Amino acid sequence: MARFKNRKKKNFVKPPIVKKQPNVNQVTGDKIPKSFVFSRGKIPGPIKQLELDIRKIMLPYTAIKLKEKKRNNLKDFLNVAGPMGVTHFLILSNPKSIPHLRVARTPQGPTLTFEIREYALAADIARAQTRPRCPKDLFNNPPLVVLSGFGGGDQQHLKLTTIMFQNMFPAIDINTVKLSSCQRIVLLNYNSDTKLIDFRHYSIRLQPVGVSRRIRKFVQNHQVPDLRNLQDVSDFVTKAGYGSESEADEEAATVSLTSDVGRVNRASSKSAVKLQEIGPRMTLQLVKIEEGLCSGGVIFSEYGKEAAEAKDAANEGD
């Protein structure tokens, strides 16, 4: 008599769903810029941490866990960038102990080279603040970009710098953008006298006008207040040491809300807009613009053609 073997049925396991980031902005119809942030050559520990901080700035459209190897060259990153829709490279290097930041448009350039004159890491900014603020959902949306001082004169290199920084981040439609998605801002201020660019990264915070700090914290955290030693609820609101009725300055910028933003900021009300620096902080100087991707003819050079060629030869040696 034939024997039938007991065959165990294999449970069907559904493959994990991978959420792919869209390549086209559904609102504006423009291509969403994406970036790679990596380093070339030997760099010290603080510059390596600065690289990780810059990756956070470019979130969510960047490779936050991009792994680099010594044998990787620029062509390796370029080959991967095409299928992934990467449009910009941000490359950190440290030739002659002077930190450099190159911002390049893929795949054919141009490339802007900046000297990092001064910088402060995000951790340094947080340690210097009494109440550092960095919520978990802060990096779910790209930052807004504000450029100041780049419009003066007809200097071609400033126009190219403006276009490059604007195209690094997704464009927004002011008529349809949700205020709750605007949580960060990147500010670049150009000083025409010193020819330096101040790079700052802030978080945007809304505070209701006319509400004391104690009431706002109570609503946000759902804390049960201790009213045993109080005679009336008004004592809880006006108790000494809890601050004034409005923590926002009279000259602070205000915005009228058309939809609810959080538990305290309600529609049909005014809220004060406050910026809190989250870092990193950099002071940049534009030293060279090349036509191609880290190569090609020099469109602009701060040190002159001969000095630029000598500097390129030194960088290649490193």
Describe the structure.
It is a single chain. This protein is of the alpha+beta class and 318 residues long. It has a domain at 35-205 and 279-317: Rossmann fold, CATH 3.40.50.10480. Helix content is 22%, strand content 25%. The chain has helices spanning 45-57, 74-84, 122-127, 156-167, 213-221, 233-238, 305-317, and strands at residues 35-39, 88-93, 100-105, 111-120, 144-148, 184-191, 196-208, 254-256, 270-277, 281-290, 298-301. β2 (88-93) and β3 (100-105) form a beta hairpin. Residues 33-295 form the Brix domain. This is Brix domain-containing protein. Pfam families: Brix. It comes from Asparagus officinalis.
Topology:
Elements: E1 35-39, H1 45-57, H2 74-84, E2 88-93, E3 100-105, E4 111-120, H3 122-127, E5 144-148, H4 156-167, E6 184-191, E7 196-208, H5 213-221, H6 233-238, E8 254-256, E9 270-277, E10 281-290, E11 298-301, H7 305-317
Parallel strand pairs: 1-2, 5-6
Antiparallel strand pairs: 2-3, 3-4, 4-10, 6-7, 7-9, 7-10, 8-9, 10-11
Pfam families: Brix (PF04427)
GO cellular component, one term: preribosome, large subunit precursor
Organism: Asparagus officinalis (Garden asparagus)
